Amino acid sequence: MATLWGAARRSPMPYHRMLRHLQSLFRVEPGRPALWAGIRAAVATALPLCLSFLLTVPEAGWAGLTGLLVTLADKGGSYRVRARVMGAVTVLGSLVGMLAAPAGHTYLVDATLLLVGVTAANFARCYGETAGSVGGQLAVIFVVSLGAPAASLREAVLRGAALLLGGLWAMALSLLLWPLRPYRPARRAVARVYAGLATAAEELRGATLEGATPDAWAEGLKRHGGIRPEIERARGVLAATRRGRPDETQRGEHLLVLVELAEPMVALLSALAEAMQVVGRDPHLYATRERVARLCEAFAAMDLWVARALVQERNEGMRAPPGLPLGPRRRRQPARMAAPAVRRTTEGPLSTHVATLLDRLREYAGVAHETASGLLFGDPVSARGRGTVGGAKQAPGRSPWQPIRDHLHRNSVVLRHALRTGMVATAALGLTRALQVGDAHWVSLVVISILQPYAGSTEERVLQRTLGTLVGASLAALIATTVHTPPLMIGVISGLTAISVALLPLNFGAFQVLLTPDYLLMATLSSGDWTVASQRTLGVLIAGALALVGSWTLWPSPERRRFPDAAASALRADGKYLQQLATHRSGTEPAVNEERRHLDQALLEAESSFQRLMTEYRGPPWHLEPGMALLTYARRFALAVTALGTGRFEGRTTSVLPQQLAQRASDSLELLARALQERREPPPLPALALPRTSDDPVLGALLERVPRQLGILHGAVARISEDPSLR
Fold first, then answer.
1. Is residue 86's pLDDT more than 80?
2. How much of the chain, in percent, has pLDDT values that exceed 90?
3. 3-class secondary-structure state, position 507
4. What is the full DSSP assignment across 110-136?
5. What crossing angle do the helices spanning 129-146 and 107-123 adopt, rounded to 10°?
């Protein structure tokens, strides 16, 4: 966020926005091409096309379309979730393709079905991003089938059967012909969490030894928040994997313990980072910095060992954990971290708070170590590990119709996007038919792929898809004019599919450029018209223009109107988290962890809203400074509270977070949240009386941050109320 802000200050906003969109088109992400995924997608697509050619059954070529789409719907995760998502695309895709096949002969029926079908498919986003992705795949099948009306009922039934068989073939290829290891996705998801913890510990070690600047500490603490999405993904993958597997509870229990341990360990690292930022370069606390650095080094080594154990899945060839020989006779002994014990000495004003954090981090790290060892060797979960998840609560059941009811109102972003997409796609069909330009359904298909729920995202997608599709359509036209036999065409389609899917993790633009000829050449192969690819370039420009007009005119909802509400939710979550910490004896209890989880989600949603605001904003860039300050200090306030609450321990006589202080601070945050939602200037904040902590300078400095950061938040809300740019 800070990088974007700096760039915005150096250049005019429209130029900066266009430059960022172009950079995203050519940016190459770190990693390696997904070669096996590309080969699998090519096989899933090419085999049905080959059978269609060899059996001289043109309808069988439709199986190649679902083979490709079902393969692209496989986003990873547990095998159970993957099978459910791919099965939905297979079954529903064959159904909508068969129902759309007899239509399309008259414009009125065609346009009505297009409006209803595309709107319904995009409204599936109310069930989440996965359901939205499935809806997008179904919309593609629906529009393509509408564009090629069946001559008879028999042909429509054969088309549905071919679509079904193509999807089943892709599912069998992805889920059965490859080794079926149900817990592999969950293990890898948890491994990513511990790899993130290791990185955070290494950064904390470096910043502690160097005495980092406040800005460096702020960036590091922000990266700690990036572990939260990985924990949520791991928790979701594991829950889906364990569901319906009562006979495999031991392995799942090990992974559950490791996931739940990550929650308090992130909080402890963040609290330790806040405390060490207070310590700074104080020469009297040199011994404290040394202890923290050594423990962070050992903690990072432990996290990396756990991550490797989770990925490797076997104990053969595994190195011993740091500081403990991992032999068969000693494998049941609790693994201990290779770091010296923390001594509460009196050399200088050594903080009891920091010593408590180190003790707790060592305790949780030991449980994680012995749990990973038990998973590696098949030992049962220890009593300490079971105690970690003892307070976990199951989410209450929810009606399957509740998401639909929640979004059936005029202010719903999902409903507006669904209606906008259906209307613009229908308008594209009518305009293209009236102008007799290319394939009308192809233009509608491009509109569906371009339109996004937010205007800024649509602008970026217009540029990406337009340039990518223009290049891809030109490539398809060149191929169609030089390759005139089905066997060669199938070979070209297979090669393009493999390369495009392999490059997807690295660059979306390259994926789009190479995937576009796939759709066009499959349509060419199905229709037998070898000039169809060359007729669609102009349609892409029409689709991009219509998508922009629709995004700007149909229920425009600028992000500047949504951002204050998202920021207010984050401030309220700060206040609730503070109250939870004040009413519990420990900052790592399940109820506190759950409230911190809600807080992290609210902060991530507010930051995402601000990112979209920066994409859409056309005014002076310095007007966005209050919003950035508000988000920055909302997160810093949460981290300071975490540091205060996590340092508490049972048996301590003095309460670090008095309930009166927590209640007044929470009331102040509620006043700021109301002012944001009502778009008015906030009232003055009440004074906060801080408890005396003369015996602990670190805790004293952390407590002083509470009223100071509340004052900064008050100033940011006041500046937002004065400037109409963010109202």
1. yes
2. 9
3. coil
4. HHHHHHHHHHHHHHGGGG-HHHHHHHH
5. 170
Q: Enter the tokens of residue 697.
A: 């300078």
Distance CA 153, CA 236 (A): 43
Q: What sign has the CA pseudo-torsion 275, 281, 284, 285?
A: positive
The Cα–Cα gap between 574 and 664 comes to 13
For residue 727, the 8-state DSSP code is -
Express each pLDDT in 305-328 by its tens digit.
888 888 875 554 455 555 433 333
SS3 718: helix
Q: How confident is the model at residue 571 (pLDDT cuts 50, 70, 90)?
A: very high
**Contact criterion met (CB below 8 Å) for 497 and 41:** yes
The letter for the amino acid at 411 is N
- C-alpha 229/C-alpha 604 separation (Å) is 9
- CA 639 – CA 596 distance, rounded (Å): 10
**Coil vs helix vs strand at 393:** coil
Q: What mean pLDDT is predicted for residues 447-476?
A: 73
| Torsion (CA) 324, 327, 330, 335 in degrees, nearest 10 | 30
Alpha-carbon span 58 to 271, nearest angstrom: 64
The torsion angles phi and psi of 528, rounded to 5 degrees, stand at 80, 0
> Measured between alpha carbons, how far apart are the two ends of the chain, in Å?
20
Distance CA 661, CA 650 (A): 20
Pick from 606, 500, 417: nearest CA to 40: 500
Helix 13-26, helix 508-527: angle, nearest 10: 70
Alpha-carbon dihedral of residues 657, 661, 662, 663, nearest 10 degrees?
150
Residue with tokens 């700096």: 6
> How distant is the alpha carbon of residue 396 from its chain centre?
23
- Measure Cα distances from 577 to 389, 421, 572, 706 in Å: 20, 39, 9, 13
Quote the pLDDT of residue 45.
83
Q: Which two tokens stand for residue 309?
A: 């154990």
DSSP string, 124-179: GGGG-HHHHHHHHHHHHHHHHHHTS--SSHHHHHHHHHHHHHHHHHHHHHHHTSS-
Give how far Cα 500 sits from Cα of 44, 447, 466, 481, 507, Å: 14, 21, 17, 21, 9
Residue 536's pLDDT is what?
64
pLDDT in tens, 505-539: 677 667 766 776 676 666 666 555 545 555 666 77
DSSP characters over 554-623: SS---HHHHHHHHHHHHHHHHHHHHHHHHHSS-TTSHHHHHHHHHHHHHHHHHHHHHHHHHHH--S-GGG
**CB 271, CB 646: distance < 8 Å:** yes
Please provide residue 148's backbone torsions phi and psi, each rounded to the nearest 5 degrees. Answer: -130, 75
Helix/strand number for the chain, H first, E second: 27, 0
pLDDT of residue 2: 42
Number of Cβ within 10 Å of residue 675's Cβ equals 21
Q: Specify whether the CB–CB gap between 587 and 266 falls below 8 A.
A: no
Question: Mind spelling out the 3-state secondary structure of 398-424?
Answer: CCCCHHHHHHCCCCCHHHHHHHHHHHH
Instruction: Share the mean pLDDT of the chain.
Output: 76
Cα separations (Å) of 215 from 201, 212, 225, 277, 636?
Answer: 18, 8, 16, 10, 12
Alpha carbon distance 447, 444 (integer Å): 5
Model confidence pLDDT, tens digit, residues 363-376: 888 888 888 888 77
- Give the integer Cα–Cα distance in Å for 13 and 725: 14
Structure tokens given for 55: 């059996």
Query: Are the C-beta atoms of 647 and 356 separated by less than 8 Å?
Result: yes
For 242, the token pair is: 């364990």
